[in-house]
Structures are given as structure tokens and as C-alpha cells.
């Protein structure tokens, strides 16, 4: 056998745009998703974990360029020349699953899905090519009760993970109302309709006066560039502006304003009726406009969805990178879409769903102090005497039996300082110390590392003497004393 | 713009070898992994979720054929021509992560990881190209306390998920003892050593007499074919047979037998000492040979690992496909391996780990009746009157507030029979029925679907009259009555 060529050492790095998640990053996300899953389950939604790999054919319509199927997704050819790809969201797989299993699934089918998706896009700061999505959808019913249910469930989910009532609002709008408004403008030329839609999308940024200018002659933007307008006259623009600003002091008032905005449009009236039905169904369950509100200024997603559209915003303030207070903003969105399954089966199947931005919501919980970046480390039993390893193992065994996270130091025990440095790096709350003297006396030393660190940083000599952070207790009292210290720390 | 060609409809199917997981399949696995994670966490292990995508370079040495990097793994070329691949286990990523982050990680580094891995292999019945792994490893210590700890943790994890003590045993062997035995045989020629190792691997199948024949002149196998032997004489074969059969009535006896088998081999003696140390550390924590036992007949993985090797076996019986009772068998395995990180850094880093076969353990829990394939469905509030939807929503709202899984029927309510069929398909325990009469009287009908099904199947007319499965209760008593029925059912 020829001697194999010596290969250079591979680089130890994640591919560009990918990252690893450590410790609390994993467990806090899992806990949050678990809490959300509990709410979804209570609403009768079933878990679905679809294959991470799909045929490009099944994802097809979501791909921008069919000649280069790995544009936007990570794709490769199977041994039988079929193109496979990593799912890039959880909606396209739902469409495939529903079409494939529709005879075995209940109708309507309520399902939730949580897991990573992959995007073959240019990574940037905070933009990764693998990230989590968390979706819930109801497939197979056109009933507005399904839309109302998803809004209620979203509100419940936010409260369940720790966003208090008053710190969030779910805003509801309707694409059909917008269509009615378009009819009311009298604009029928598709390109001009599209231009109106694009302008509405800018409402978040440029506000009412900006939209008025952009619908008309045009607008000088902040950079000094002149943006051409759509060219509507004031009468044509009026319904659009009425729509965007129709939110009133009560749901009844908002709905009345919307009825004015859509005028005689049949689709528009239908859209307003749908919003009214959603509001009334929600009111019956006690969800008032303090939690879920009809708000026609929500324009995000209006182009994508076909009926009701919703968005959950967190209304508390955080400081932006320049230290200025601003609202936290959107953490979830969804709506009704009716062309989910048709490309597989030819049949239109109505569906409505919501997607929670997992990383956004985690960031919000961090901002609210609901979760911390570091979890409490284990109690560390230090090794003073290598030959006593069985005794140290017995100690951690007892601690774990009592449900206390604990470990023996398993590095080189020669330098005690390294053991304390290790405990520090682990975020350990307590260290146990027992050498020959302690074993002879039948005791252990228990060091409160949190208190110790506080004292080292702040205390006067007197305090230091009064508040010892190290205790000698009988060996049999080890677990009780550790439990006491942990209880005091938390 | 040219009219786009009409494409044929895509097939709604998972790629070959992939599958979807529904409902209880997802939640029971998640619950099991969550319970295991709790045990691992208590032992001081930190969660790690590495990127699902790695550079082929980082996975490189695990690939059988470097000229065809997508052999065995799913691989593709990135836009900058780099080959990327889906991880095919959780060990190769651990090596990359540890090499990449070693300056920020504690030493030793205890980590657990749970998640899907992907194999580009020929799928078969029950063999999928995406499946879960569940690993725990300690990197950076040669101490046998790490090995003992992992064995104890594995035993705890099995009990935590529902395998009772007595129904499992963790068997421990040591590659170093085997190396010592090889020395004792006097076989030095590498090909002949390899032949001895291959023969030992067959011990599970052919037993002591089979191995004796195969080490010597050869053996007529069950199919009538003659298998050539390794050609050792009886003196040479004796240490191997002594090794494989050295399990005694007590740990002390087993260790004494092993000392005889390894003779003067220094490495063999070291291996026996390691096993002795593990047994003594475990005894100190109360893990006797009823749970973790030194057992030199464990040969699986001996070729791969460099020190202690362990395997968890479930000892209860199940019926095989022909209805014959057999032991459930192995659900986890692991051992010590020391070349994890060296290919990245050039430094040998000692490590020890264990991997639980997620699907195997789930199958075992099913076999023991610890989990069932179906979960209890939601209470279904039926729709007798479309205009009362708000009232029905209020009912499910109250039930959910009380923590009861509940939903309104959102399909077409026209045929009541379809609603009951839906409830049946959902596995619903209870249906709520309220039409005009009920609303007028201020009551609801509550149907116990489980009892109803039992009565329909088994009861006499008398029983049927005595045990009504449908109750009329005041509207205000809805939640209490449902709770009572659910409590009786469980």
C-alpha cells in the first residue's frame, strides 16, 4: 500500500454564516419553545416534525431561479440525479406534508412546528444561515374562528413565556379590506395597483404625509433624492389614506371608518365583516383591544396574505445602539393564505398561520430580564487528595440524589488555584473542599462562591469578618448545608 | 414577458429515506430527551447545539472516500467552491467545536448534544437517512472518574425515562485489557492481530466454542461453509478465551480472572487496574454490579475505543417478529477515545463519551408500556349553530384557562356525524354539544366519548341504561364536569 500523502490540518471552524450554541443559549431557547408548545397543544394543535430535507421539486415555487436550484437554498443532487434541498422555512414543508398525508390527517388540521431552517444567503451581523422558526397553522378551514383562535393563542403564548399583559399587542388587518380600498381608488391598471401596494408598504417608514406625497406627485426623501409618485389625484388617494388611518378609539369606530374607506367594494365589505367577526369571537373569550386590536396601519405582510393579517408587537421600550429609547417592536406575524396545497393537488385549501420570530422573542425575554445569558453552574467538589476520588464521587452522588447539579473536578488537581479558576469559569455557586484534615475530623469545608465574590468586591473588613463565606460542617450535613446556601443565593 | 411554461405538478413526497413525525411521535421523543437532558445537566454537563452544516474538511477523516466527498454524507459546494456537508454524527462536530473554542471552554469540558444527523446511505426498512442522536462526552481528562461518571449517568438516565432498576445493566470492558491479552498470545504480526480482533467480534454470535475453533483451525458455519481459522495453537488462544469468559460471580473474581488472562502484559495490567478503579468509584456512589458490571464479554466497540468501553443492555424480554421471547438488548454504548481533537490541533486530547440510541430507547419505552403511540386528543366543542360561534369559543376559552386541551370544530358543521367522526379521529375524550334548546335552557350536553365507545362495544342494555355516557349540566358547570370526566378516564 502506498504511503498516504500527509494532508494539512483542517481548520476548526463553522462554515461561513453558521454558528454553535452553548449551554444556556440552548436550554433557554428550548424552555421557551417548550412553553409555547404547551399553549399550542392546549389549543388542540398537534406537533409536526417534517424532514429537514425536501426535494427541490416540492420547494420549487419558493425558489427564485429554477435554472440554479441552489440559489437561496442549500441544494445538492442525489445519487439518482434528483435535486434535494434543506427546507428554508416551515410553510413549504407543511404544504408538502398536508398534500401527502391529507387522507390521514383530520380536517381541519391544526399543527405546530419548531425547528431549524436554512437559507443560502449572504450572512451578516446577527444574520445566520441556520436559525429557528416556530410556526402554527390551521389548514382546511375558511372559518374566521380559525383566525381568531390563532390570535388568541399567540397572545397566550406571549404571556406564557413571560411577556406580561400590557407589554404586547396583536394587531389585525385584512388584505381584503386593502383590495376593497384599491377598488375604491378606481385604479385598475396592474402596474399602478402594484405601485400603490409598494407605497402602502412604506407607511411604517414615511407616515401619512409621506404616503400622501408618494401616492401623488412624489417626494423628496431624507437623502435629498426625489422619489417619483404613483400619480393618483387626491380623490383617488383618499381611500388609501382613510384606510391606513382608520384606527379609532374603539373597535366599532375602526370598523365604521373602514366601511367608509372601502365604499361600495364587495370584497372590501367582506373584509371588514371578517374583521368584525374576529373581534367579536375574541371578545367572547375575553380578549379585548388591550391585547388584540383591529389596526389597519399594520401593513407588513399585506402583500403576501389573502385575508386577515396579524402582527404581534412588544410595546415596552428598550434602548437602541445609540442609547435612545424605542419600542421593542414585532416578534411574530401571520395571516391567511389560500394557495398552500394547490400546486401539489390542484385544489385550493384555505389556511391560516402564525410564525414567532424565535431569536427576536428570546432577545425580548433577555431585555425584560426574564432569562439570563448564563445559567447557574454545578457545585464543584474539589480534589485535595487524588486517592480520595471515591469519597468525592460519593459526595456528588449524594448532591445529585438531592436534585442538586454537582460535579467532581476532573482536571489535573495538582494546583488548587486551577480548581477554583475552573469553578469560577463554570459559574459554580458552591465549592466543596475536603483534604486529609477534614476526612480525619469527619467534616467538609463548603465555600459560598457567590457571597465570596461579593465580599471580595465590596465588603469592608468588618463585614468580611461577620459574613463568612466558608463553612465547616459535619460530613453528614453536606447536602443540607449546600441546599441552604443555594436557597439563599436564589 | 414571455408566458411561463406550465410546469407539471410536483409530487408531494419526502425524499427517499426521509420521513415526517406526527403528534405523539414528536412529543414523546422530546419528553424522553428532555428527561435525559435533566440528568445530564445535574451531572454538570452543558448543552451544545452545533451547526448542522460543517465543512467537509472538518468532517474529512470520517469520510471513506475523499475523491467523492458526498459519499456517506450529504454534501454540496458553497458559492466559494468550498464543500459543505450535513453532520453525520455528533462526535465529529464535537471535535471541531472543542478545537475551535478550546480557549473559552472549561477543561475538562462536559457536554451533551441531542439532535438530528444525516447519512447518505441506502435506506431500508426502519433505516432512515435522518435520525436523532443523543450524546454526552467529557473532553480533556484521562481520569477514570470521568468514565465512571458517564456509566453512572447512563444508569440514572435510563431510570429517569422509565426503565426500572433490574431491567437494565451497563456492562464495562476495556480495550487495554484486550491489548494485553493480544500481547499474552504472543501474536505480533499485524494481520494476524487483526484476524484475532475480528474473531473476538464474533463472540456475540458464535460463543466460546466458536471462537475457539475460529482462533485455531477454522469452523464449519451454519450454512455449511468452512471458515478458515486464524491458526493459533491452543496455548496462544488460551488468553483470548480466558479474557472473553472471565466474568465471575463478583467484581473481584472477574478482575482476578482478567489478571490471569493478561499475564505479564503491562498494558493489560493497566487496563485491569482501570476497570478496578471504575468499579470502586461506582461502588462509592452505590452503583453495584446489579446496575453497572465489569463484563469482558462485551466486545462491541472494542476495536474503535482506546480504553474503557461500555454498553447498556435492557434485560427484559420482548417477542421477536416470530413471537419468540428475546432480550431487548443494547440501547446505548460508549467508551474512551483519545484522538478526537488531534487532527485539528496536533495535540492528543483524552475524551470519553456515550451515545444513547434514541429510536431504540423509544422502542423500549413503547415495549414497556411507558409511552403510548397516541396522545389524548382535545375536548371538541361541536358546532350546532353557526351563529353561536362566539359562544362555542367562550367554552373552549374557559376549558383552556383550566388547563384542559380543547378546540371548537372548525370544519363544515352541516353534518353532525362528521363532527363526531372528527372527534374520533382526533382521539377526543369528550365532546360538548349545545344547540338552540340547550342555549334556551342554559345547559350543555357533555358526552364521554371513551365511556361511550366502551359501552357501544361491550355493554348489555341494562348497563347501557345505568351508565349514561352523556350528561346535561348547567352551562356554568361545564369546566367542572369535563374535569371530572377526564379524571375518571385517566
Automatic annotation (TrEMBL), chains A, B:
InterPro entries assigned to the protein according to its UniProt record, in alphabetical order: aa-tRNA-synth_II (IPR006195), aa-tRNA-synth_II/BPL/LPL (IPR045864), Anticodon-bd (IPR004154), Anticodon-bd_dom_sf (IPR036621), His-tRNA-ligase (IPR015807), HisRS-like_core (IPR041715), HisRS/HisZ (IPR004516), HisRS_anticodon (IPR033656)
Subcellular location per the Swiss-Prot or TrEMBL entry: Cytoplasm
UniProt keyword Cytoplasm, yes or no: yes
Domain called Aminoacyl-transfer RNA synthetases class-II family profile: residue spans: 17-378
Keyword annotations from UniProtKB, A to Z: Aminoacyl-tRNA synthetase, ATP-binding, Cytoplasm, Ligase, Nucleotide-binding, Protein biosynthesis
Biological process according to GO: histidyl-tRNA aminoacylation
GO CC annotations, alphabetized: cytoplasm
Enzyme class: ligase
GO molecular function: ATP binding; histidine-tRNA ligase activity
EC number(s) recorded for this UniProt protein: 6.1.1.21
Coarse class of the protein's main subcellular location: cytoplasm
Sequence positions that bind L-histidine: 89-91, 119, 133, 137, 300, 304-305
Keyword ATP-binding found: yes
Catalytic activity: tRNA(His) + L-histidine + ATP = L-histidyl-tRNA(His) + AMP + diphosphate + H(+)
Complex and partners: Homodimer.
PANTHER family (UniProt xref): HISTIDINE--TRNA LIGASE, HISTIDYL-TRNA SYNTHETASE
Protein family (similarity comment): Belongs to the class-II aminoacyl-tRNA synthetase family.
Protein name: Histidine--tRNA ligase
Lineage: Bacteria, Pseudomonadati, Pseudomonadota, Alphaproteobacteria, Rhodobacterales
Amino acid at each position: 500500500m502506498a504511503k498516504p500523502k500527509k494532508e494539512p490540518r483542517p481548520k476548526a471552524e463553522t462554515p461561513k454564516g453558521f454558528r454553535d450554541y452553548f449551554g444556556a443559549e440552548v436550554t433557554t431557547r428550548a424552555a421557551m419553545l417548550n412553553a409555547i408548545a404547551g399553549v399550542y397543544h392546549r389549543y388542540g394543535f398537534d406537533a409536526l416534525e417534517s424532514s429537514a430535507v425536501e426535494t427541490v421539486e416540492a420547494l420549487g415555487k419558493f425558489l427564485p431561479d429554477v435554472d440554479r436550484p441552489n440559489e437561496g437554498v442549500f441544494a445538492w443532487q442525489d445519487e439518482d440525479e434528483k435535486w434535494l434541498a434543506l427546507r428554508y422555512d416551515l410553510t413549504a414543508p407543511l404544504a408538502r406534508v398536508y398534500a401527502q398525508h391529507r387522507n390521514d390527517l383530520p380536517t381541519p388540521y391544526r399543527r405546530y412546528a419548531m425547528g431549524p431552517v436554512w437559507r443560502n444567503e449572504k450572512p451578516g451581523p446577527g444574520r445566520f444561515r441556520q436559525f429557528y422558526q416556530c410556526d402554527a397553522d390551521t389548514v382546511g378551514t375558511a372559518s374566521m374562528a380559525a383566525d381568531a383562535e390563532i390570535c388568541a393563542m399567540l397572545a397566550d403564548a406571549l404571556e406564557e413565556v413571560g411577556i406580561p399583559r400590557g407589554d404586547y399587542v396583536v394587531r389585525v388587518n385584512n388584505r381584503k379590506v386593502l383590495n376593497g380600498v384599491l377598488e375604491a381608488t378606481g385604479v385598475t391598471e396592474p402596474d399602478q395597483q402594484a405601485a400603490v401596494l409598494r407605497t402602502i408598504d412604506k407607511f411604517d417608514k414615511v407616515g401619512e404625509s409621506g404616503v400622501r406625497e408618494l401616492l401623488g406627485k412624489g417626494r423628496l426623501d431624507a437623502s435629498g433624492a426625489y422619489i417619483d409618485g404613483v400619480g393618483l389625484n387626491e380623490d383617488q388617494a383618499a381611500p388609501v389614506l382613510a384606510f391606513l388611518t382608520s384606527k379609532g378609539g374603539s373597535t366599532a369606530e375602526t370598523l365604521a371608518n373602514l366601511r367608509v374607506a372601502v365604499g361600495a367594494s364587495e370584497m372590501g365589505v367582506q373584509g371588514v365583516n371578517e374583521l368584525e367577526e374576529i373581534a367579536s369571537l375574541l371578545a367572547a373569550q375575553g380578549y379585548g383591544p388591550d391585547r388584540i386590536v383591529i389596526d389597519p396601519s399594520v401593513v407588513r405582510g399585506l402583500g403576501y396574505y389573502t385575508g386577515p393579517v396579524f402582527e404581534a408587537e412588544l410595546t415596552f421600550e428598550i434602548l437602541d445602539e445609540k442609547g435612545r429609547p424605542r419600542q421593542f417592536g414585532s416578534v411574530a406575524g401571520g395571516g391567511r393564505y389560500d394557495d398552500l396545497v394547490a400546486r401539489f393537488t390542484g385544489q385550493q385549501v384555505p389556511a391560516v398561520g402564525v410564525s414567532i420570530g424565535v431569536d427576536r422573542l428570546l432577545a425580548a425575554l433577555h431585555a425584560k430580564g426574564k432569562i439570563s445569558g448564563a445559567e447557574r453552574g454545578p457545585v464543584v467538589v474539589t480534589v485535595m487528595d487524588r486517592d480520595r476520588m471515591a469519597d468525592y464521587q460519593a459526595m456528588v452522588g449524594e448532591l445529585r440524589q438531592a436534585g442538586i447539579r454537582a460535579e467532581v473536578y476532573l482536571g489535573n488537581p495538582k494546583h488548587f488555584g486551577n480548581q477554583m479558576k475552573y469553578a469560577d469559569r463554570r459559574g459554580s455557586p458552591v465549592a466543596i473542599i475536603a483534604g486529609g484534615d477534614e476526612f480525619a475530623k469527619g467534616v467538609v469545608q463548603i465555600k459560598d462562591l457567590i457571597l465570596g465574590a461579593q465580599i471580595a468586591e465590596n465588603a469592608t473588613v468588618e463585614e468580611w469578618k461577620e459574613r463568612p463565606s466558608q463553612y465547616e460542617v459535619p460530613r453528614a450535613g453536606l447536602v443540607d448545608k449546600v441546599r441552604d446556601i443555594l436557597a439563599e443565593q436564589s
